[in-house]
Amino acid sequence: MKANPLTKHPEYSSYGVFNVLIEQNENRLRDMFLELGKTEHKMGTVDQKVADLYKMAMDSDRLNREGAQPLMADLAKIKAFKKKDLTRFLADQHLKIGNPFFGIAVETDLKNSDLNVMWLEAGTSGLPDRDYYLNTDADSKKIQQAYTSLPRPRWTAPRPATTTNSITSARSASCRRTIPPSTGRSTST
Question: What is the dihedral of CA 114, 117, 122, 128, to 10 degrees?
Fold first, then answer.
């Protein structure tokens, strides 16, 4: 930390050239959206749609007024989930929300960067990296305990500790089957 202090960007656990590129891109996009919003556009054009979408997203009064209401239909689907609906449920989640149990993507092959291959990866459920679930050192155990004791969002029903522990255990089990980042580029396997 002494050799590489994060005083300029203390909100990041690390900061490098990719963070600079992300910030520059976000600033350019923001400027583009603000510029689009300054003029009237013909109804139905891409410019009109993008400008309206940006204005909606930035309308904090409306967002605060609506609260979690826009999510309620999706939360109702999750609450009503039955095992027999798994395929339909997963397809819907992947199309509209994210990667609930697994993610599918086309990415560069780990051993041949000239190839793009289909990847099947463990889905996300909260913690940012597989090692958060698997490391057994004292700091990691502290993070894991804090994660399982986090309060649930106010629009969801209270979740018993056994359910939270089951979800975390399932995520840990899936993480054990994934390639650790430190060996992802190994050519010996």
Answer: 30
